């Protein structure tokens, strides 16, 4: 129906009703296509399969469209927690890491009150599942990853971004409204060939896409922002002084023995694991409690912890890789539409040369058409700049590398202390020297590995390039250059007597 509407638009004199109908149909067609993704994905699942996959909640698939549209993340509800656990398992499989056996050592932060020490989760032996409990002061890496993602990646979509997203969906209804209120028999955006071409570009093809993406850009920025917060929280835990664990209140600290009920957890709260029953029992036995006044940090002086944090960090970055490709594809299409708008402006405001103006005579344009192009171009530039700036927070490898280098410096100081020690026990000194040297080498290798993987091989990209604040200028330089050329053409033509006619509003030369 949309091509038929376009054909009628170019062949009929009265195009106002056809334009409004076509734009409304295009909007609902886009919504129907998005919903068809859900139908195709779940067409071969019966009710029993859906109930098994979504914890006996048959209404859960109704929220699948929202979850797909929001780049795979949604509000931290019971069903979405299951989805988040699936993402964690897939990230571990893609990165080749198994975090269930990796241990992370935690210590009180320097500015915290004195703690009694983190006690083992069990007083003695193995669990009912035959799993050996972690030593005192240690936490399983997959549990820590779950805590971090629960507080960052699973954060709900803010209300103001949701409002802007809905506003983007309603934006295609604006041109029909403006045309309906236009003066006389001429639509507000003009009835010339140029106006029809511009409106076809701006409304029917990329314009409708940009209107939908006005909402999706909020989702993309929120996706980058949550990933940046997750990395920042992990780096904060690894840094000096640690992270205030009141955001993890009731989830880390002093352990509880097997068989203790939730009511015996002291002043903390038990958070259910979103996985199967055995995983839930394991999570319950490893639930910790900390007073909110205390602070803890990840102890990078422990070699096991260094390796575990590297694996955890790799899984955390892997959780956003596949959604980054989707968002990056959107930014490329978004950038291309901005280039189309600016190119059209440059064509409109060519030099006031007689031969050239004769060639572009059919492309007469009005002020409303030009303002529409300028508004879309400026919006595209602003959204791209915000996307790059937000995505740059995901590429903060120097922040974590500083923690590793600080730990390596401490290892060097330990070597100096060992060298300055007496020679009473040469065997013990030699063993301590080898341990300190190995720890220093491990920290230096971890520093090099993080720098290479996160800054060279797998950085978070926007428009196919690493997202850095410096890249903002390079990203929007093409649009800014085109806008400058169009402005130069506008000023040049205006100085030669061009202007918008008072009779029909067209951009005309001196008569």
Automatic annotation (TrEMBL):
Membrane-crossing residue ranges in chain numbering: 15-33, 163-182, 194-216, 327-351, 371-391
The name this protein goes by in its record: Uncharacterized protein
Keyword terms, alphabetized: Membrane, Transmembrane, Transmembrane helix
């Amino acid at each position: 129906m949309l091509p038929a509407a376009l054909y009628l638009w170019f062949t009929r004199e009265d195009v106002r009703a056809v334009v409004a109908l076509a734009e409304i149909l295009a909007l609902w067609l886009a919504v129907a296509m998005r919903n068809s993704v859900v139908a195709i994905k779940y067409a071969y699942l019966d009710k029993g399969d859906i109930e098994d996959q979504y914890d006996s909640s048959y209404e859960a698939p109704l929220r699948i469209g929202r979850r797909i549209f929001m780049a795979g993340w949604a509000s931290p509800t019971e069903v979405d927690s299951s989805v988040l656990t699936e993402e964690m398992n897939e990230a571990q499989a893609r990165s080749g890491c198994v975090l269930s056996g990796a241990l992370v050592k935690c210590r009180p932060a320097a500015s915290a009150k004195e703690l009694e020490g983190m006690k083992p989760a069990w007083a003695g032996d193995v669990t009912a599942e035959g799993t050996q409990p972690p030593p005192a002061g240690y936490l399983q890496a997959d549990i820590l990853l779950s805590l971090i993602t629960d507080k960052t990646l699973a954060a709900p979509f803010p209300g103001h971004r949701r409002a802007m997203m809905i506003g983007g969906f309603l934006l295609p209804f604006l041109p029909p409204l403006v045309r309906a209120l236009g003066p006389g028999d001429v639509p507000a955006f003009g009835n010339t060939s140029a106006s029809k071409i511009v409106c076809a570009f701006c409304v029917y093809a990329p314009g409708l896409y940009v209107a939908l993406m006005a909402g999706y850009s909020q989702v993309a920025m929120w996706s980058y922002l949550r990933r940046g917060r997750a990395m920042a929280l992990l780096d904060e835990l690894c840094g000096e002084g640690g992270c205030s664990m009141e955001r993890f209140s009731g989830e880390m600290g002093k352990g509880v023995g097997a068989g203790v009920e939730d009511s015996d957890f002291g002043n903390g709260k038990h958070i259910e694991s979103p996985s199967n029953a055995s995983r839930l029992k394991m999570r319950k036995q490893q639930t910790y409690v900390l007073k909110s006044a205390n602070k803890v940090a990840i102890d990078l002086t422990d070699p096991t912890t260094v390796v575990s944090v590297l694996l955890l960090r790799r899984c955390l970055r892997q959780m956003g890789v596949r959604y980054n490709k989707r968002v990056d594809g959107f930014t490329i299409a978004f950038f291309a539409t901005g280039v189309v708008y600016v190119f059209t402006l440059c064509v409109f405001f060519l030099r006031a040369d007689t031969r050239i103006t004769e060639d572009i005579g059919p492309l007469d344009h009005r002020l409303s058409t030009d303002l529409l192009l300028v508004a879309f171009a400026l919006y595209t530039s602003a959204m791209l700049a915000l996307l790059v700036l937000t995505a740059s927070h995901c590429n903060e490898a120097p922040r974590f590398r500083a923690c590793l280098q600080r730990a390596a410096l401490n290892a060097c100081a330990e070597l100096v202390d060992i060298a300055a020690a007496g020679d009473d026990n040469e065997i013990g000194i030699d063993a301590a020297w080898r341990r300190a040297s190995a720890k220093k080498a491990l920290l230096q290798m971890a520093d090099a590995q993080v720098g290479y993987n996160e800054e060279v091989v797998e950085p978070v990209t926007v428009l196919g390039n690493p997202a850095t604040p410096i890249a903002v200028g390079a990203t929007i330089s093409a649009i800014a250059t085109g806008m400058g050329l169009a402005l130069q053409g506008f000023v040049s033509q205006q100085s030669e007597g061009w202007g918008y006619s008072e009779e029909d509003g067209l951009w005309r030369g001196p008569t």
